[in-house]
């Protein structure tokens, strides 16, 4: 039987106390049937043969193993005869581009073991280990304790991403109402944020079913001591979901506001241009009239020039004052 190589991480708890970590998977698997033992096995980029060998040892379903090896699975929780299989995504927002990066994580939850499977090391498993070490008094709750620490870190990444996106959107709102906004940059950033929110929504919304499914009584995974902690995670999932939906509406509103502001500015410019065109049309009309090749009053006389000049100034000035009073200029 092929076991995963040195890339695997392991922990062994006995009666709620951390007894060993970093043991080879082969040695850890031998304790599966020991009373009071809870195991954690983390596999980073395992081959199909390596995961199949461990699946035979733990009795994992072939469909669950297939899902763990194939990327881009939807966040979900499936129940099999001997174990639960969950798929989730941790996320991180790139502050420079506003794009959302995600890393997929699969987990097999058995009666005595939690097996996590990752395609790569983008998900920081050290955060999960640190979360477990922060609450060693809960280790007596068994595999549920390990599952809680894992989900807590995943959901925290969702919440942090939502908070970061909220700050980006607030900055975008300030730019919309700037005196001289960069419309091209605003459109680019709004589109990037909208794509990130769509991705985050696909990741966050299904987590309600995942966490709620783990809290079901028939799974016997969450005991009375862990229930408040899982409820807290579920509350964070709901808040992240609602926040994501509200941010999507905010981005759409910002885009509509930007278009309305652009339209208002264009109307203002057209109004001013039209007003000045009307003022300029007056001297053009007067000089055009007196430019006819026919005699007219004041033709060839100095007073005719001064009368026409005065008429142009008076009419142009009258239009300017009228337009100014009506805020057309």
Q: Give the number of helices.
A: 9
Low-confidence stretches: none
Average residue pLDDT: 82
Shape: rod-shaped
Sketch the topology as an H/E string, one letter per element.
EEHEHHEEEEHHHHHH
Number of strands: 7
Distance between the termini: 85 Å
User: Per DSSP, what share of the residues sits in E-state strands of 2 or more residues?
Assistant: 5-15%
Strand order of the largest sheet: 2-1-3-7-6-5-4
**CATH 4th-level superfamily of the largest domain:** CorA soluble domain-like
Helix content: 55-70%
For this structure, the CATH topology of the largest domain is: Beta Polymerase, domain 2
Radius of gyration: 35 Å
Secondary structure class reads alpha+beta
Oligomeric state of this protein = single chain
Your description of this structure?
The protein is α+β, with helices and mostly antiparallel strands and 329 residues long. The protein folds into two domains: 9-261, Beta Polymerase, domain 2 (2-Layer Sandwich), CATH 3.30.460; 270-325. The chain has nine helices and seven strands; from the N terminus they run ββαβααββββαααααα. The chain has helices at 25-29, 48-58, 62-69, 125-134, 143-176, 183-204, 207-214, 227-290, 302-325, and strands at residues 9-14, 17-21, 37-44, 76-79, 84-93, 100-109, 113-118. Strands 2-1-3-7-6-5-4 form a seven-stranded mixed beta sheet, sandwiched between helices. The relative contact order is 0.08. The mean pLDDT is 82. It comes from Saccharothrix espanaensis (strain ATCC 51144 / DSM 44229 / JCM 9112 / NBRC 15066 / NRRL 15764). GO terms for molecular function: cobalt ion binding; cobalt ion transmembrane transporter activity; magnesium ion binding; magnesium ion transmembrane transporter activity. This is Permease, MFS-type. The chain crosses the membrane at residues 273-291, 303-323. Belongs to the CorA metal ion transporter (MIT) (TC 1.A.35) family.
């Amino acid at each position: 039987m092929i076991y995963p190589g040195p890339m695997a991480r392991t922990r062994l708890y006995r009666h709620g106390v951390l007894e060993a970590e970093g043991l080879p998977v082969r040695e850890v698997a031998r304790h599966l049937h020991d009373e009071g033992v809870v195991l954690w096995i983390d596999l980073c980029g395992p081959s199909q043969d390596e995961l199949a060998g461990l699946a035979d040892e733990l009795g994992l379903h072939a469909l669950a193993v297939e899902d763990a090896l194939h990327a881009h699975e939807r966040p979900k929780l499936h129940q099999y005869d001997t174990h639960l299989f969950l798929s989730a995504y941790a996320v991180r927002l790139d502050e420079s581009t506003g794009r959302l990066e995600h890393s997929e994580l699969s987990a097999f939850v058995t009666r005595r073991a939690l097996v996590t499977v990752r395609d790569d090391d983008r998900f920081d498993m050290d955060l999960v280990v640190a979360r477990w070490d922060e609450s060693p008094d809960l280790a007596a709750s068994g595999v549920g304790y390990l599952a809680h620490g894992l989900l807590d870190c995943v959901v925290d990444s969702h919440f942090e991403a939502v908070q970061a996106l909220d700050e980006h959107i607030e900055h975008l709102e300030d730019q919309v109402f700037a005196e001289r906004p960069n419309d091209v940059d605003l459109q680019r950033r709004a589109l990037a944020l909208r794509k990130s929110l769509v991705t985050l929504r696909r990741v966050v919304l299904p987590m309600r079913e995942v966490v709620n499914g783990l809290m079901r009584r028939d799974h016997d995974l969450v005991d009375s001591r862990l229930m408040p902690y899982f409820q807290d995670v579920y509350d964070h999932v709901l808040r992240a979901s609602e926040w994501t939906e509200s941010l999507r509406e905010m981005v759409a509103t910002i885009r509509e506001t930007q278009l309305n502001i652009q339209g208002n500015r264009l109307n203002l410019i057209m109004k001013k241009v039209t007003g000045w065109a009307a003022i300029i049309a007056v001297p053009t009309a007067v000089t055009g009239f007196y430019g006819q090749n026919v005699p007219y009053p004041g033709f060839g006389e100095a007073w005719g020039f001064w009368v026409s000049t005065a008429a142009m100034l008076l009419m142009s000035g009258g239009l300017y004052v009228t337009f100014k009073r009506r805020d057309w200029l």
